[in-house]
Write a structure and sequence with these properties.
This protein is α+β, with helices and mostly antiparallel strands. The protein contains 13 helices and seven strands. Strands 1, 2, 3, 4, 5, 6 and 7 form a seven-stranded mixed β-sheet that branches. Helix 6 crosses helix 9 and helix 7 crosses helix 8.
């Protein structure tokens, strides 16, 4: 949960997750849908799917015991080098160095490393330094201490150098480079993608579809999405696309302004329009599964954050129309 997510955000999710899944067997026997629902809103949903699959593998292949051999652990979903080293050092005190953003920042300043911290060569250099510093005993405590210094003292901006236990050894402090390090090359601007959420009603039920496995946001539910169209008569184009891609005859009712959501690699502008369906014979080459449900039941499914924004935006109008 802490991968690319702040501690304050994680804490309530962590407690809810452990309250429901007290053992690895509990997690392994749960459905993916239940796991995703508990994870809902935390983002980076592949972490939840990997955690669920890891639990199943640990139960079925390793007698419900987490392997403590590094190579074995690296073959379990979700266990990359960072997570594997963190688990083995902190939980089992094995001498593996943890390298996260906080540790990289501390070492870049401690040794006044001016090279681009995003560069693979620089990261290997920093990893080598951390490996040399790591004590063979108390490796977990050392890793946690380095991460904690980065999180609370050697912060990205306004670092608390006067309170830092490494200040007398810090080369960046001596050279007055603290605010300039670590150097990060500018990220490329990320594109904006535009799509249309088709809110399709038939009597008092709304069409909701599940995103397929091996796709972004796999296993989460959404109002069927079409790539947004431009043209002289977008409504006519939308109706035609719904017929072509979903095998549904519909009529247009209403539309709402787009909601914006940002993912790691792109901005997402999600427009929403309400349509009335004449038939219920939904077919799609993209979606694995679909249902016609009430709004109340839809809320019980795991939805991705952009779709929650759409639902919150139009819910009052949908309720009014359905009545």
């Amino acid at each position: 949960m802490l991968q690319q997510t702040q501690v304050d955000t994680v804490i309530p999710y962590y407690h809810r997750f452990l309250k429901r899944f007290k053992t690895v067997q509990d997690l392994a026997s749960a459905s993916q849908q239940e796991v995703l629902k508990l994870w809902e809103g935390l983002g980076y949903y592949s972490r939840a799917r990997n955690l669920h699959e890891a639990a199943r593998i640990i139960v079925s292949r390793h007698n419900s015991q987490l392997p403590i051999d590094r190579e074995t652990l690296l073959n379990i979903p979700g266990f990359g080098p960072y997570t594997t080293n963190a688990v083995l050092s902190i939980a089992f005190n094995q001498p593996f160095a943890v390298m996260d953003g906080n540790v990289k920042r501390v070492l870049a300043r401690l040794y006044a490393i001016k090279e681009d911290i995003r560069d693979v060569k620089t990261q290997k250099k920093v990893q080598s330094l951390m490996d040399r510093l790591l004590p063979q005993e108390h490796a977990g405590e050392f890793n946690e201490a380095m991460m904690e210094i980065g999180a609370t003292i050697c912060k990205p901006s306004s670092p608390m150098c006067n309170n830092c236990p490494l200040s007398t050894q810090c080369q960046a402090l001596k050279k007055k480079l603290v605010e300039k390090l670590p150097y990060k090359s500018p990220r490329q601007s990320i594109p904006t993608r535009s799509s249309l959420a088709c809110i399709i009603i038939h009597r008092d039920r709304y069409l909701i579809a599940k995103r397929p496995q091996h796709q972004m946001l796999a296993g989460l539910w959404e109002f069927p999405v079409l790539k947004s169209n431009t043209g002289r008569n977008p409504i006519k184009l939308d109706l035609e696309l719904i017929r072509q891609q979903f095998n549904l005859q519909t009529s247009f009712i209403s539309s709402w302004t787009a909601v914006k959501h940002t993912y790691t690699h792109f901005h997402f502008m999600l427009h929403s329009k309400l349509f009335k369906a004449i038939n219920q014979e939904f077919q799609s080459e993209f979606y694995d599964d679909f249902q016609w449900l009430t709004l109340k039941t839809i809320k019980e499914l795991p939805l991705h954050k952009a779709m929650w924004k759409v639902l919150e935006k139009v819910e009052s109008e949908l309720i009014t129309i359905s009545q």
